[in-house]
Amino acid sequence: MKTGPILLLVLLLGGFAVYLPNSTRSLNPQTLVASGQAIPISSCQVLNTPGATYTLTANATGSPVPFPPGSLTCFLISSNGITFDLNGFNINPRNDASGIVVNASSDVISGPGTISPLLPFGTAIALVNGSDDTVRDVTMGLGFVGIRVDNSPNDLIEDNTITSVVVMGIDVTNSPGTRIVGNNITVGSLIVSPGRVTGILFSNSPNSLALGNTVEGTGNALVLDAGSNHTLVIGNNLSSNLGSWLVSFSNSNIILGNIAGGNSANGISLAGSTNLVAFNRADNNRLRGIGLGNVCGDSQVSFRLVITI
């Protein structure tokens, strides 16, 4: 009897509970749909018309608006169902302000467009205290953090380019079900200590997804803390970083089909239990291809098999 790749994968996944997020790009594609009026804008302001589409018509100017407690942002999205189309233009807030803060649900920020520069303390885009928001096809750089997701579950961060961040490319905190898909994160040549930059961090954000991302030149490329269990890490290219490409302290994750080459520490560092690691490539790393921590237990590590009948 011939054994096909799908059957092999099913056998490898046997005994694991697969926790899929609400959707992925391949299973449930999203389209940018908004109802209501279209509103042209070109200066920093609050966007608060539910269901409207706001479109940049020039590079954004003007004074930032307040976002409590004590923060500033060029644009504040404060109503549900808004689409903000950057329309190819640039948001260039002053140094202590964010580019865009979303404080609502089911909103969409879409490019192409850029947010820069944001040194020394600015965050390009922050999704805070909402849910089901989307950031797609935006280029951002020179900021403290590229995209921050805080207490905002089921968000989709897709096909963005993040360069020259000081601390974090994508920071996900207290946001279960977050989907990080197809993003490109590089530190760039302007950062003094690239080894201290984390590419993607999931903190207390279980049932999430990292799919098809590229992270290069950071410290640790992808980190799952102890509260980010049941996360899918699939098809990422996390090579040439100054730390490990994956550091996981969580449990019951599926780590499948990733590339981890040329990192300065381990390719994959596991310190949790009941993880599945299969079909990954981890070569030319300075320490180990796969490092299993002292607290690992019941994890399954599988290697690529070629079967000819």
Strand and helix layout:
Elements: H1 5-13, E1 38-43, E2 45-47, E3 53-61, E4 65-67, E5 71-77, E6 83-85, E7 90-91, E8 97-102, E9 108-110, E10 114-115, E11 123-128, E12 134-136, E13 139-141, E14 145-150, E15 156-158, E16 161-163, E17 168-173, E18 179-181, E19 184-186, E20 198-203, E21 209-211, E22 214-216, E23 222-224, E24 232-234, E25 246-248, E26 254-256, E27 268-270, E28 276-278, E29 290-292, E30 300-301
Principal-axis shape: globular
Structural category: mainly beta
Count of individual helical segments: 1
Query: In percent, how helical is the residue content?
Result: under 10%
Q: Low-confidence stretches at least 5 residues in length (pLDDT < 50)?
A: 1-12, 14-34, 294-309
Overall residue-averaged pLDDT value: 78
Main sheet, how many strands, which sense, barrel?
12 strands, parallel
What is the CA-atom radius of gyration, in angstroms?
A: 20 Å
Distance between the termini: 8 Å
In total, the number of domains comes to 2
Strand order of the largest sheet: 1-3-6-9-12-15-18-21-24-26-28-30
Percent range for β-strand residues: 35-45%
Oligomeric state of this protein:
single chain
